[in-house]
Design goal:
The structure holds two protein chains of two kinds.
Chain A: E1 2-8, H1 14-17, E2 28-32, E3 35-41, H2 50-65, E4 71-72, E5 78-79, H3 82-91, H4 93-103, E6 106-115, H5 129-156, E7 160-166, E8 173-180, H6 184-195, E9 201-209
Antiparallel strand pairs in A: 1-3, 1-4, 1-5, 2-3, 6-8, 6-9, 7-8
Chain B: H1 11-25, H2 38-52, H3 64-67
The chains are: A alpha+beta, B mainly alpha.
Chain lengths: 219, 77
């Protein structure tokens, strides 16, 4: 069977393919017109901790990204043989070309804002339940407005963005941003500055990453 | 599993979650067989939850079948 990592263009250079695939397998490319898929041959997937396999998958994609535009595949794509892969590239050609253009020259940045500390337990003897709840709602709304503002500013620095989660006690904001590679530094600086608008939280910016969240056709 | 308060994961651990979350739940889906042990996947989800309390696509009742089309319960040895 073959394991597929990513879709790119035939200009993917030799240097990207020098990296080893899962289980030390050799990386290969399959070209169909102006598309190329990067894959490796396996009799079976070597057993290994799932986390290690997934991180290896990601490392391969990052190596390709260093040399050109790449559409990351979700982890776990196994096909019987190259012919199937070629057929899939042909069948989805136009959509895949559009996706490549969407992410060309851009990287993904993940922003995760979480509470800085474990939430404090409610004090015993809190009276006036209704007032307490109203206060919490008002505070939550102010807080949520600040979060929305942060997302709006970061979104304005991006070509595309998507909020995966917001408004819960545990995850203040979980969002993905597609940012032109020339603006990644500026994005990080702005994000750091904006983190100050959300007291009591920690902001972790991850990336630049391959554009997993923007690789599929946007609906 | 070591004791750890929710929300006190290191930045590095959170970034790891961000990568795993994406590689497992985002990216282009080509038709194919995903052969991963369900038990392995559950363990990954569990450890991710412990680290950051909730993990985007990995909570809210989404099951493995939704996240990985074609996932079977057989580990390809």
């Amino acid at each position: 069977m073959i394991y597929v990592y990513a879709i790119s263009e035939p200009t993917v250079t030799r240097s990207a393919l020098k990296q080893r695939g899962l289980g030390g397998a050799t990386l290969r490319t399959l070209e169909r017109g102006d598309l190329a898929a990067i894959y490796s041959h396996h009799r079976s997937l070597s057993p290994a901790p799932l986390r290690k396999l997934v991180l290896h998958h990601d490392r391969v994609i990052k190596a390709i990204m260093a040399t050109g535009t790449v559409l990351p595949l979700r982890f776990g794509t196994q096909l019987e043989h190259e012919e199937q892969l070629g057929d899939l590239l042909a069948a989805r050609h136009d959509e895949l070309r559009r996706s490549l253009e969407r992410v060309r020259g851009k990287a993904e940045l993940g922003v995760r804002v979480i509470p800085a500390h474990a939430s404090a337990p409610r004090r015993r003897g809190d009276t006036k339940g209704r007032d307490y709840l109203l206060d919490r709602v008002r505070s939550h709304r102010r807080h949520q407005q600040a979060v929305d503002d942060v997302h709006a500013v970061l979104g304005a620095l991006s070509e595309a963005s998507s909020v995966r989660e917001t408004g819960t006690a545990e995850t203040v904001l979980v969002a993905a941003y597609l940012v032109d590679q020339s603006r990644v530094g500026e994005f990080r600086l702005q994000a750091e500055r904006l983190a100050g608008r959300l007291p009591g939280t920690r902001m972790i910016v991850t990336g630049p990453l391959p554009p997993y969240s923007f690789a599929e056709q946007q609906r | 599993m070591t004791e750890r308060s929710v929300g006190l994961a290191t930045d590095r651990e959170v970034s790891l979650v961000e990568v795993l979350d994406r590689a497992l739940g985002a990216g282009v889906v080509l038709t194919g067989d995903v052969t991963i042990s369900l038990a392995d996947v559950d363990l990954v989800y569990l450890s991710l939850r412990v680290l950051v309390g909730s993990v985007g696509t990995l909570e809210g009742g989404k099951d493995v079948a939704e996240l990985m089309p074609g996932a079977s319960s057989v580990v390809d040895g």
